[in-house]
Amino acid sequence: MRQVPTPFPLSQRIPEETAFDRRELAAILSLYGRMVAAGEWRDYAISHLREVAVFSIFRRTAENPIYRVEKRPRLRQKQGMYAVIGPEGQVLRRGHDLPMVLRVLERRLIRSVD
After folding, report:
1. What residue ranges do the domains of the chain occupy?
2. What share of the chain in percent tops pLDDT 70?
3. What is the dihedral of CA 82, 87, 90, 93, to 10 degrees?
């Protein structure tokens, strides 16, 4: 007699990829648009992988990203699933609320006027 394997329950399924939703992308692209208008940023790339979604920000197209905004759902219950990563890989800010995490980049837009 042949034994049929038991399928995994739907609630424990591992997603094929992690992605930003519309609200998250709106917050990121709003900041990105302001920084492009200020002449600070020039290009971006979006990667949707199994465990992380990454929005990479470039000053010039041919360079390494100057910042990365990451979404890691597995860290939701721990440190927060959103993080801003600097050019050398240092975590600049991590948290549960994306707009609060993005504020670390908004401070770079505010300059003193002479």
Report:
1. 16-106
2. 80
3. -40
